[in-house]
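Margin note from the TA: students keep mixing up input and output lines. Inputs are the sequences; the output is the structure of the whole complex. Example:
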Amino acid sequence: MYGRYTQELGVYAKEEAARLRDGGVRDGSGLRRNTSVRSRTADLLEYEKDPCAKCQVCASRCQKFLISRVGEDWIFLILLGLLMALVSWVMDYAIAFCQEAQKWMHGGLDSNMLLQYIAWVSYPVVLITFSAGFTQILAPQAVGSGIPEMKTILRGVVLKEYLTFKTFVAKVIGLTCALGSGMPLGKEGPFVHVASLCAALLSKFMAAVFGGIYMNELRNTEMLSAACAVGVGCCFAAPIGGVLFSIEVTSTFFAVRNYWRGFFAATFSAFVFRLLTVSNQEEETITALFKTRFRLDFPFDLQELPAFAILGIACGFGGALFVYLNRHIVECMRKQKTINKFLLRKRLVYPALVTLLVSTLTFPPGFGQFMAGQLTQHESLVALFDNRTWCRQGVAEEFDYISHHHAWKHPQVNIFITLILFIVMKFWMSAVATTMPVPCGAFMPVFLIGAAFGRLVGEVMATMFPDGIHGDVYPIVPGGYAVVGAAALSGAVTHTVSTAVIVFELTGQISHILPVMIAVILANAVAQALQPSLYDSIIRIKKLPYLPELGMGHHEKYNIRVEDIMVRDVRFITLNSSYRDLQEMLLTGHLKTLALVECRDSMILLGSIERLQLQSLLSLQLSRQRRLEYLRQLAQDNGAHDPLPSLTSDSTPSSPCAHVHLNSPTNTSARQVVRFLVSTQQIAEWEDQQLDQLVDFKNCKIDPAPFQLVEQTSLHKTHTIFSLLGLGHAYVTSMGRLVGVVSLKELRKAIEGSVTVTGVKVRPPLASFRDSGNTTSVSEVTELHKLCMRHRGLSLPREPKPPNHIAYCQNSEPLCE
Amino acid sequence: MYGRYTQELGVYAKEEAARLRDGGVRDGSGLRRNTSVRSRTADLLEYEKDPCAKCQVCASRCQKFLISRVGEDWIFLILLGLLMALVSWVMDYAIAFCQEAQKWMHGGLDSNMLLQYIAWVSYPVVLITFSAGFTQILAPQAVGSGIPEMKTILRGVVLKEYLTFKTFVAKVIGLTCALGSGMPLGKEGPFVHVASLCAALLSKFMAAVFGGIYMNELRNTEMLSAACAVGVGCCFAAPIGGVLFSIEVTSTFFAVRNYWRGFFAATFSAFVFRLLTVSNQEEETITALFKTRFRLDFPFDLQELPAFAILGIACGFGGALFVYLNRHIVECMRKQKTINKFLLRKRLVYPALVTLLVSTLTFPPGFGQFMAGQLTQHESLVALFDNRTWCRQGVAEEFDYISHHHAWKHPQVNIFITLILFIVMKFWMSAVATTMPVPCGAFMPVFLIGAAFGRLVGEVMATMFPDGIHGDVYPIVPGGYAVVGAAALSGAVTHTVSTAVIVFELTGQISHILPVMIAVILANAVAQALQPSLYDSIIRIKKLPYLPELGMGHHEKYNIRVEDIMVRDVRFITLNSSYRDLQEMLLTGHLKTLALVECRDSMILLGSIERLQLQSLLSLQLSRQRRLEYLRQLAQDNGAHDPLPSLTSDSTPSSPCAHVHLNSPTNTSARQVVRFLVSTQQIAEWEDQQLDQLVDFKNCKIDPAPFQLVEQTSLHKTHTIFSLLGLGHAYVTSMGRLVGVVSLKELRKAIEGSVTVTGVKVRPPLASFRDSGNTTSVSEVTELHKLCMRHRGLSLPREPKPPNHIAYCQNSEPLCE
């Protein structure tokens, strides 16, 4: 028995160490993730303890750092802005170069159609395959948008490998190649990730150089939240929209005091980004990226508003369809076992195939001629925001500038057909392309499709009312519709309203504010009612540990209470637990924290203890040193003057078997073997004794105030509190007595509705009974009554123990990943 | 003794009732306020209990309401937007009418300077005096901006009379008169208040008509927060800026899920507001309020950016000076006892005098000719945002429209002198005018001053570089500087960056985004370092119960812990408290909630009980019914068949003295008197007995999980938690033992630094000792040790009781008002 369990413990310890060292978890999607929810309260606690950790040594140094923290915030934000602007500019330059190269190849080979086709197709296939392979080898975490992961990280979940230098390199190079290929992919989501990577790496660098304040977690979270704003801001040169978009997309509750950080960093970054463009002689001064020149006096007629509203509603449906399509493609491929297996083995086949298909369809001399295939995203957008009306020729506009609108005109085909083909083809192409395992976002493609759809509606309106609605004074501006459509569709897909601000900053004109706002709000209303946002959809696909929002339509949530969802078999230790209980607890469960209660009868919650603390307690109790002491003691007592040198020098207490192997080949005398066996038995006895002792919590770090809920707390309130405080789990108490535990997992289940599947109905049968008490619920009274009686010294019939309080099964673990 | 305490209790109960009924508190500023902090947790609890309050009767009805809640949210927001747009439009109309009337009077009397002067001066004096008198009589709460109060209300503090119909009427009429007078006052702050009033009244109305969902507090808070956005949004027809401004100004932590409400309502409101203007034939279509026509191709040169940055920094200093001046004026008047007394008696003298002074100085034929005195705020702003350069005549601009820039030109005086005079005079005038007891804000005047300052800088730049910085191609646009200055100064005064968005929406152009952002951020950085925001300054002046922000520079706060600021003499009741203890507790303190602990030795916190609950417990114990029962019992036991009819029918148990008076004039026999005296004595004995009984908490509503902190929690974390959850107080526990309490008051003191005055230094002498423990602090270990010992049945030397645990003095009360 001795050998078994010590070995078990040894194996367990090794496993535990290994788990802690790299801790990778393989999930169904083939991605390797390292997730562990950290209570933000713990972070906060660390935060405050951090500056004083080595207080006696460097108190004055800490003080100095604290005082100069404001300055360092500024410096950090400026550096971050600078870095991101540089990254953004260099990437833009490289992407433009790639695209030019493709055009040049395509143009140079116009004598031979086949060669031209091969060049047109092979170029993106090579780039995308390289991008997929490179990220796969270097850092698979770099795949995809990055916004869902950032949302999860800002929620307080640590996805450690998402913020490493390797990921940064993989993301930047992979993204450059992916965008350079001309596929319908966006850079906005990845930029949020890149900016966060920059911030994290910069933090690490600053911490290594300056130490102190750069070390703590809470500050890093604040900086990450600013970094998200920088990412969007310098991607579109839209600081305000960037801040708002990043808040909407990544936060549940936003601390207004962090607002200025985002604004400052995003503005600085956008400024430097645009300055670099100017310094490169590309532009004369800093203006908007997609400058429009709509007339200011009469931007739109009031009678056009219904058309804008319809455009918004249509975009809402379109956005929901896009999210559905995107998720459906991923789920389909996952369900088809054979496809899935094949694709998992040959990871590069899928992106290559998709790229081949998309680039074949956009081949300009082929089908691409009907859908402006030769234009890049940027050129298409500039053309779509054009202030000329395409369907009517010969209208003299006051401004004239280089535009690519001729690409949209085909001698045989109507402009409407071109636009419709463009919208339909790009729609599914974007939905498919964004499922490729390369760093890419979906915002820009969606934005482009929205602009095209808006342009279509605008052109239809211009055809219907060729002289404007009120007569010949103010004709309809289809470009305005394009702006509205772009904002509405991207708003619908991402469930944000700040895309309105982004389009104003992108176009440099705010004259269409009212139609844009109306369309964006309507699109959001429709899309939110039908589908989750694209980012929430990806969170679900990737099964990231995130707490979903309480939807607007789910009002039955107000009727679910904590007692309906809580896990009642809480694992706890009591003040009079023995080390054996502790060991059992550690061996049978994987909880990160355990509750500490006064005793089994009172169950009064005293605090919570981290698993690691308990492990160290246990290993301290059975430590080598104490074992040696015991053996020395034993030896002295037995009068044996040989203190078993071989045993004490070589053996490790956790693996006495190894000791046997070590010693057996050596030339040991029979006496030594006997003595060894005796001592092994004695050690086993000693360990038994040690395990039977009561745990001494003196050297154990206890969280003395873990978050508590009561049974009557509603799901709505629980959700709010978990979101606000970034909790991972909370104990449910009733008059100080621990009665259950609720973790993110239970909460997520309840919100996603699977709680109704597992037996608990929306309103459980006994629910009305609960409300029948006049002022206080029945259970409360009973608990109180017991406490009173216990206190007043009356004898209380001892409750039957909960039959399997230890069998707190796997699925009730707070940290599901 | 019997008579004394029952009377005391009776008086106390009456006082309590009166306090609850109208609860007015008079503070130094002569304002009557009704403040009581409500724990938002309590609200949340109510929220969830609300739909099921009468569950057995109307469960299905509740369900129906819950399901249709989303729809009702939309309806509510649409109604709110409609209402506010109408109010805004009607008020604008009335204000414009008033201002026209003044101009007409002034114009019609131009033959006689004296008559003209009298007309010019008397008109605003009458209006302002009426406004001041009207609000004073009807609802003094309508005075001032309203944003500080809304900030406090959204923080979770109930300022009840701030959201009544009377206040609404007073605010709307008072504001119309005040703005119609042409004084340098703004409508933005009051509009936030008016919108909140609308929302509150609408909620009440809907609750009265539909019931159910409209009743609960949490929803009202959500709606109030949307209302603030509507207020700003429809005041400036700036929905996005309105939402952001209201978030920055009123929230500490913002729930992103409430974002769309604000956007929707503000957009709808702005739309209807502008639609009304169009329908009134004032404008052709919906455009910006202060439309600018700056060139789009080259809005500014990059070399101009330093000038914009300097403008921003100067505006930062200016903003801080404005806040300082405004507060200083109020404080000066308060300190001068004689002035203060005089003004308190003659409330209308001060506004009349200020108005007289200001209007005299702006009299157009007098000093006003040097500072464009005849222009209204709106006209001035239109002129300042003009795209022409004033200092150079004869520059042909492509656009030409009606502008008031000629008012700024004086035959003898340079345009620079006019602008400087305008800025200086308006600066102090606005600072003084906003201290008048009328409904008014300071945003618009400050915005105007900023625009004038920007125009001044712009004109200086245009004079220095008459051909533009790069040559004759692109001259400098001083109007752009005016836009930047307006955003920067208003941003500095209010400590917001969203003024940038507001100016874009106000002017309808976003081309100057970069200079505006740079100037606003710099202005904010400077102003935040020097002074609190105007609204925080007013909160301090009015002594509203608000938790101040943790400033950026106050990093010593990280070193203050809860144990340094907590009140150690917590008032508590134990499970074995007698009713006498309860009575004593209720008589000696004014706490809203009391802690419930297990027993005096363990001090384990079980929950908290509201004062009202305890009062009802006590009155139940000494209730008339029980008293009568006792008397009947007594009568039966004594064999007396006369059940003392007079005593039982007339007497109220709390005032037996009244009973004596009642009975003495009647023709009572000696026997009756004797019997009465006997029974009085018996009642006294009975009450004594009753009071000695242990409290039965069965029928008492206990909050079983009040918020707990630990001694080591830092001030920073405490502040975050209080802000996040809107707490009023939190208990400090150590391993479940109650050791102290922290309320808003202590926290505010600590943040404002007065904690250093009362003896606790920034870092107390023993602080380093705390950090010397390796893993757990000394006190924790001790506590745990005690618990362990207690639990394991070892005898523990009984601690000396805290000497005056009952003397939880007045100043440690959580609710300071």
